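User: Could you check the structure of this?
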Amino acid sequence: MSRPAPRHVEIDGRHRIDAGIEATWRELNNPEALAFCIRQCRRMERLAPESFRAHFKVGVGPLKVPVTADLDVLPEDPPRRYRLNCRLALKVLGDAEGEARVDLIEHGDAVWLGYRARVTVSGRLAGYGLDYLRGAVARNVESFFTRFGEWMASR
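Assistant: Sure, the predicted structure tokens are below.
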């Protein structure tokens, strides 16, 4: 049986954060905030000033699989833009890589986070339909930014 070809999913969106741009930027680079924002994250390690490793569980159908993801938060125009790269291996299920560009736009006393992301999955994961994959990616990204808004509201 041959392996499914890699699949690509692209999504974009924006979220309002009720905080200033400097505080928003600082917390987007805070490992505690990142761990809070990633569903099922058990631990977040800072490997270097702009690199992190997240330990969490991901659900694929009825399975909950332990996952380690490497994240690079790469400033492009602080505090207005950064790029986020993510690589994770889901053992027998396959691999996923993602890249997102995040723009921070001040609007009054709030910040709009605009993002455009591309995720590539391979292995068994690629065997799932694109609609399923797009939905899963969109739910996780939506959850991340919703939780980030909650994190910022608690500061």
